[in-house]
Amino acid sequence: xxxxxxxxxxxxxxxxxxxxxxxxxxxxxxxxxxxxxxxxxxxxxxxxxxxxxxxxxxxxxxxxxxxxxxxxxxxxxxxxxxxxxxxxxxxxxxxxxxxxxxxxxxxxxxxxxxxxxxxxxxxxxxxxxxxxxxxxxxxxxxxxxxxxxxxxxxxxxxxxxxxxxxxxxxxxxxxxxxxxxxxxxxxxxxxxxxxxxxxxxxxxxxxxxxxxxxxxxxxxxxxxxxxxxxxxxxxxxxxxxxxxxxxxxxxxxxxxxxxxxxxxxxxxxxxxxxxxxxxxxxxxxxxxxxxxxxxxxxxxxxxxxxxxxxxxxxxxxxxxxxxxxxxxxxxxxxxxxxxxxxxxxxxxxxxxxxxxxxxxxxxxxxxxxxxxxxxxxxxxxxxxxxxxxxxxxxxxxxxxxxxxxxxxxxxxxxxxxxxxxxxxxxxxxxxxxxxxxxxxxxxxxxxxxxxxxxxxxxxxxxxxxxxxxxxxxxxxxxxxxxxxxxxxxxxxxxxxxxxxxxxxxxxxxxxxxxxxxxxxxxxxxxxxxxxxxxxxxxxxxxxxxxxxxxxxxxxxxxxxxxxxxxxxxxxxxxxxxxxxxxxxxxxxxxxxxxxxxxxxxxxxxxxxxxxxxxxxxxxxxxxxxxxxxxxxxxxxxxxxxxxxxxxxxxxxxxxxxxxxxxxxxxxxxxxxxxxxxxxxxxxxxxxxxxxxxxxxxxxxxxxxxxxxxxxxxxxxxxxxxxxxxxxxxxxxxxxxxxxxxxxxxxxxxxxxxxxxxxxxxxxxxxxxxxxxxxxxxxxxxxxxxxxxxxxxxxxxxxxxxxxxxxxxxxxxxxxxxxxxxxxxx
Length: 825
Known about the structure:
The protein has six helices and 76 strands. The protein is mostly beta strands. The chain folds into four domains: about 55-290; about 295-475, no CATH class; about 505-720, no CATH class; about 725-825, Sandwich (Immunoglobulin-like).
């Protein structure tokens, strides 16, 4: 039977007391609609009554005056061809429609009155407890959903797909509804799987999902027929990719006709049809009448405190409120790349209504104001960033990311930042901390060409490896990791599930010579790994290089990492990989520092070459499983306590007596064989044993000059040669009492150390350049020995002092013995 004829007949039989249907036309976004049941059709219906099955009307009213108070109860009680008519109210329900033998209409009073206010006043609220409406396995049953606001759904079942409507193996007619503010893994508004829905007059807006299809997701053989007269509107939805509409390769070509869309000419950020690798497929036809946003070809400014998405965003005095909206408003220009500038403040769902994960766009960079004060907080609700499908030429800079979450919907996925099939990605001055994900809690680069990761920190994250690089398809691709700290990360609460075991850096590739790159000035310390017993012993905790990768590790500090198990190691090289280590310190790790291969065997022999590095246990303690692999123990190596000093994020500075000072690769001299370091055009160049070169950064991990004292040190930190010899005192030799200040200049901390060969009263004070007192660091009687104190750049009251030059005054038994200038940056 014709759908509208059936509805008219039902109404004629059961609700004659309602007002006759209006002849008015109604519109959404400016598009006129046809009256749902013309009066002529109503009269025709009366003439056909003998042939009908006398369907019933089941009324749903929250005040108890109807047949039912819950929509689900009315549906279960209804017979085929019945209508469930719902009075206004908010119905906190998760409807399950699953009877293949029941044709049913579920509608608000909009069906009988054409009054659009009933759409907005009759609300099915999923209460973030599943899909608002799940239509599953109804086959060819004729299901009509009409005239509701559908909101706050969170997806069906364990997979959590289809926040508003989850439609599987059903062919419903979804007419004149508003689907909004729903959230799920995929298909934030509507998820279609093995189905063909009819969509007419719906508004699908402000929905979001972590993965694909914020508005509509066409999944496995899912499709829809879009009404070309009573058009739908789809706009301002959010997703990792395909924010308004996404379609997988397993669904048929789609003709999408809408009244209002987010933009008039959408790119893959808004609409994406993709193959099984996530690459775009050109099989969508779009017809759009009106845009919701007119993109601007200019930089945009965002401020979470004073911003408003109704502002232009063109200046810092008229900023937008959220970067999620800015990413939709900006026009990505290939010839003139644009930036979105974030002011300091917290960007989160609860503070400024921020929507995560970030979904970057090609040629658009996101630049924060300050690494520690521009904060993106996911509040343990979503991952932090998802960059998918050929996104190119972007920078993410000066931002602290925190509380990302990837263990959702019984699925382990990235909780931090995930870049896949991207190119030319620059990540600089980021902090990623306190995220949780069994799979990827930090930063993951998957099939990404030309990676530049610098000056960033991954700390206190729980789950899997914190930095992963791999899966390239082009041997010309490369990566560079410079000045990064991976510290104090560990397993999540389920570490033995094959993931979630914690760890520092993992890099691999199974195509020869296609994974190459450098790690320079990196600190990988105090990480914990609990390996899955199914993988056997021999797990690495700090640094894993495998599958034919070629990696240079230069000036690294890897220490105090722990593997909970047998045969664990800090660094592992396996399966045809090559690792070249220069000027690095591997010390204090459990259970060993370096392992080649695994006890269980390897597919291909690996190679590790080590020069001018400090490896605890020396050559004899490096494990070469089954003697399958090659260890090249080169010049300048040692096995000595590095004498680390400091606390917190500066815990791995070198003590002035460290054997690692001036023990790195020698400086170039005429006739010297490789390797050596040479200054060329004011750049520091490391010539390796094979004559190939690596350009070293000008500063160490703390931002101090990389070469001090005439030769490079081992490790990520260069000891600054700022020794002040105290004058002869109490008959001792000139160097009996010595004051050291390092680093100098400094930003967050500096250490002031001294050695006394005789006991006495010591006073150490800080004054400004004009002699005004700032801070007393020490005023006490001391025995002979060595002492180290930290100045965090604060005065006696804990206030942070301004940048500039300060003086350290050193007194012993009332006699000033030394003054030392310190520069705070």
